[in-house]
Structures are given as C-alpha cells and as structure tokens.
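Good day; I would like, with your permission, to put a structural problem before you. A protein sequence and the structure tokens that stand for its backbone fold form the material at issue. The record follows directly beneath this note:
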Amino acid sequence: MRSSVETADHYTMLLIDEPMSRHTTWRVGGPARYYFQPADEADLSDFLKSLPAGEPILWLGLGSNLLVRDGGFRGTVIAMRGRLDDIETLTPNRLRVGAGAPTALVARHAARAGLCGAAFLAGIPGTMGGALAMNAGAFGSETWERVINVQTIDRQGVIHRRTPLEYKVAYREVKTPREEWFIGCELQLEPGDTDAERNEVQRLLKKRNESQPVGQPSAGSTFRNPPGDHAARLIEACGLKGFRLGGAQVSEKHANFIINTGTARAADIEGLIHHIQQIVEGQTGVRLQPEVHIVGEPA
C-alpha cells in the first residue's frame, strides 16, 4: 500500500509491507511493516512524535552495510535517501552535511571547494548518517576524525546539537547513552589545492573499483578487520575465496565482500557469514566480527 503527499520540493511517502529487497544493496530482505520517507526535517519530527512508544525503528540510507532477514522488519523504516541531503560550506574550511547526503558526493563537494581531508569518503558506499553511526572509514581515515559537531533527533522529534565528547567513538563503532539518531553534522577540513584534491578523489575511486566488486550486489565489507590483520587476508588464507552457499558467494575479487549472484536469499548470506566465521576461527583462532548490521525476522 502506497501513500504520498507532495510538498514544494519533496514528498512524504509512507508504504506498508514494503519489500526491503528494493532498498538494500544486497537486493534481499522481507517486508518492512512501515516504510517512511520524510519530506523534510519538520516532517520527520512530526512523524516521530506520532509513533507509538517502543516502536522499532530502522534508519536507512543507501541500503549498504545492512542485511534484512527474509521475514522482514516488524517496525518502521525511516528512509533518508534523497532527504536531508544538503551540503553547505559554512566557512572556508567547514562543511555542514545532512545525514542523507551520499558520502561520495560529500567527497566531491569538498574537492570542488578546495577542501582537503574528505577524499576518503569516496570509498564508503553509503550516506553521511550511516558513516556517523558506525564511524565508517576507508583508505586509513575515519569519519569522526573530521566531525566537530552533530545534529540528532529523538523519539519526541526534538533536535539536538552534540559534540564528539558526548560519544564513545571506536573502530566501526559509535556509542551514545541516548536514543537519538543522526540527521547532520559539521566537518572540519583544510584548505588545499582544488585540482589536487579532485585527483585524489578520482584516485581513490579508481582504487576502490579495481579492488572491490563494484557493480555486483554486495553490502560493502562484511567483517571488521581484526587488530593487526585484515579480514580479507584471513578469509582468503582459509581457501574461502569464491565459496558459495545458495545464491551468496565470497567475492573472487575481494574476500571480505559477499555478493548476491542473482538468486540469493537473506538466509543464504547470513548462512555464509556464519560459515566464514566458523572456518576462519577453526583454522586461525580469530573470530571475525560482522561489520554489516543484521536485522529482522527469519522467514
């Protein structure tokens, strides 16, 4: 069931029993009970106020780094794709970025403005909100190294401004004592050479395309890198490169990527994740920890 209300620039969209396979980069996932796309910040605030207390909420950007099980998500998905995605230069070396802005677009915007330090974002397949939530990183840099403040919203629709000191930030992990969600941030960058920064963004995009299965359905890196090592190296060393379970396969190009060959169910992907964990732990003693978030109910 689909319902939408148009506004001047965007529209509010509320879907019922919406298949999440339409909205995740793995192209799998059962239905969400409700799928909401806000028109703007005020619309999002009003919607959150209307939800029942305790309603499960899943925030969605580009649908990467996420596995929704075949039974779907019994709650409300709030989709930020194309929403709250403004990127604004505030001072000569500071950007205000909405949570819905694709990270690759943030990298390009900064480069065009002659700002250095955001090029690594071109290697992250997601939105700024997702990058904030997990301290996403690529090519040796991490998101929160550049964050000077964030804007969040709570269940009551109240917007807050927070500093990094209010969060516990670690490798691929951000902890907060409150039930709030990121809707924007400000990034501190450095003035630099526009052409040089543009070239750096293109270099990193080329490196990503050459080393990762870009163009095939995946969710980005499947596992976190263990201390002092790389998940891809361990998986490949255990002979799992190319291993297949149902329609899910360990990428031949990068062993820390699981791809949907075209017929995968979420259960295939989750089963392959567990199989990799078991084999790698049995052969190396290292228990790989998933980087992807697994949500929802089994079929």
Observations:
- The domain at 2-79 is CATH 3.30.43.10 (Uridine Diphospho-n-acetylenolpyruvylglucosamine Reductase; domain 2).
